[in-house]
Amino acid sequence: MRVRVQAGPFDYGAECDAFARGICGGRGVGAVVTFLGVVRDDSGRMARMEIEHYPGMTERAIAAIAGEARARWALADVLVIHRHGPLSPGEPIMMVATAARHRGAAFEAAEFLMDYLKSRAPFWKKEFGPEGAEWVAAKDRDEDALARW
Question: What pTM did the predictor assign?
Fold first, then answer.
């Protein structure tokens, strides 16, 4: 299980390849699921987004939920990468990878982790546009998605 919170970009293809190579063979893995989250500009006017976090606390919180997912779905491995700092629309912001014996467990665990990252992970997002900066508020639909777990 690996959790990385970083300012710099990551290579999604290379991360997926390394994850799959690392878990395949001899461990009963039959499914690998990956997800890439990208900075979305709903208004069409966002210049950038800035993500803040508390180093150490954020990694521990994500590692705890990744450990919960690993136990709950009997995952062979988990990878979570989340960026912080300034990001432009269209840039990769995070990725989740899960590996399990069966695809259902890998998909469910990945969705669980994504729902957690969207609604509860200790990140604070601010969008910058022509009118200035605005903190991104929590959305009811994100809380509803997490509540199903």
Answer: 0.93
